[in-house]
């Protein structure tokens, strides 16, 4: 048998065979750890993630043209619009019908699905009294008038809460129809120093949000905010989102601007208008009582107009509502319609 020199070398020296064996094992293990896998599918029954779904506003998105535009979705539920109509003298008009109104959302006509006169439905009312140092001399005037208003407006089916605010906001009387408890609570209000007006609007609006039906806040103040941690925008949004009608009574001498916070007054007037409420100026006990009387009369002569939004998607979180009187309404040009200017589709934070 002929000798094979290569075979003799492998027989005499086994190291090459061992090295070859180790190399083969390494290749095999690597193939097991890194197999060529197809893309994984989501578990059955779960939606495939959609990375183009719009994000909430201010969620850290870069403002670039190649990103999908943000849209907001509203659930198809009834939108309630509590409405007040008054004549040129400020007297409520209570004899209108469904056909006397037309309504749009973001400029799109909507069909009125609900129309009611609201004189008999329950009221949830917050009376918020400014007890800051700047109103100390008027505090007795404010509290006495507030007591008369409570006695005039409250019915067995209504509930009223009393707030006092200075550098802090305190619910003096929780929601109740007990007039003696309300009178006693109002009498216990004492003067403080600073004014947390926006905090009061925000907190009272959140409290009213838990109630059904008509919601009203009557705020008695000199119009200045000096201590709130809540911003004007946050307070305005809370009032709008809770469907609260804000009536503000600004206790200042109208003819004398010395010491007045006119910027605060204008902010309060704007929130009142945007919620469908109204502002009043009061200089003495008589004008305070007149303001309370007008508020009471309005709350007994309101309309509830409801519709289901026809559009579910929009480019804004805020939907604007516009309510108009029909052309055939008598003295239409002399009448004023007040209602909240819109609503938000995302929850209040």
Automatic annotation (TrEMBL):
Top-level division of the source organism's lineage: Bacteria
Composition bias type Pro residues, residue spans: 36-46
Residues covered by the VWFA domain: 124-299
Cleaved signal peptide residues: 1-31
Record field: transmembrane: none
InterPro entries xrefs: VWF_A (IPR002035), VWFA-rel_acidobac-type (IPR017802), vWFA_dom_sf (IPR036465)
Pfam families reported for this sequence: VWA_2
Biased composition (Polar residues): 60-69
Keyword NAD attached: no
Spans annotated as Disordered: 33-69
Keywords: Signal
Protein name: von Willebrand factor, type A
Origin species: Koribacter versatilis (strain Ellin345)
Taxonomic placement: Bacteria, Pseudomonadati, Acidobacteriota, Terriglobia, Terriglobales
């Amino acid at each position: 048998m002929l000798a094979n020199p290569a075979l003799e070398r492998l027989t005499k020296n086994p190291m090459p065979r061992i090295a070859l064996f180790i190399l083969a094992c390494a290749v095999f293990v690597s193939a097991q750890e890194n197999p060529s896998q197809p893309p994984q599918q989501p578990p059955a029954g779960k939606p495939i993630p959609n990375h183009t779904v719009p994000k909430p506003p201010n969620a850290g998105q870069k403002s670039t043209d190649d990103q999908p535009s943000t849209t907001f979705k509203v659930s198809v539920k009834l939108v309630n619009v509590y409405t007040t109509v008054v004549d040129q003298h400020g007297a409520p008009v209570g004899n209108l019908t469904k056909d006397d109104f037309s309504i749009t959302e973001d400029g799109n006509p909507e069909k009125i699905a609900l129309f009611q006169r609201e004189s008999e439905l329950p009221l949830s009312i917050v009376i918020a009294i400014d007890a800051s140092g700047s109103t100390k001399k008027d505090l007795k005037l404010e509290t006495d008038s507030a007591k008369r208003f409570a006695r005039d407006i409250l019915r067995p089916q209504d509930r009223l809460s009393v707030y006092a605010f200075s550098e802090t906001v305190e619910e003096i009387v929780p929601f109740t129809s007990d007039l003696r408890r309300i009178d006693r609570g109002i009498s216990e209000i004492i003067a403080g120093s600073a004014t947390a007006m926006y905090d009061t609007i925000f907190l009272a609006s959140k409290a009213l949000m838990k109630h059904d039906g008509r919601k009203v806040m009557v705020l008695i103040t000199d119009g200045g905010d000096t201590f709130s941690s809540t911003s004007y925008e946050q307070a305005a949004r809370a009032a709008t989102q809770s469907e609260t009608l804000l009536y503000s009574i600004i206790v200042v001498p109208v003819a004398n601007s010395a010491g007045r916070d006119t910027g605060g007054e204008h902010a309060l007037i704007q929130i009142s208008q945007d919620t469908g409420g109204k502002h009043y100026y009061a200089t003495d006990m008589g004008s305070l009582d007149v303001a309370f009387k007008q508020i009471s009369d309005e709350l007994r002569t309101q309309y509830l107009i409801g519709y289901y939004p026809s559009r579910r998607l929009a480019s804004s979180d805020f939907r604007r509502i516009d309510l108009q009187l029909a052309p055939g309404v008598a003295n239409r040009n002399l009448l004023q319609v007040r209602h909240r200017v819109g609503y938000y589709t995302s929850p209040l934070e």
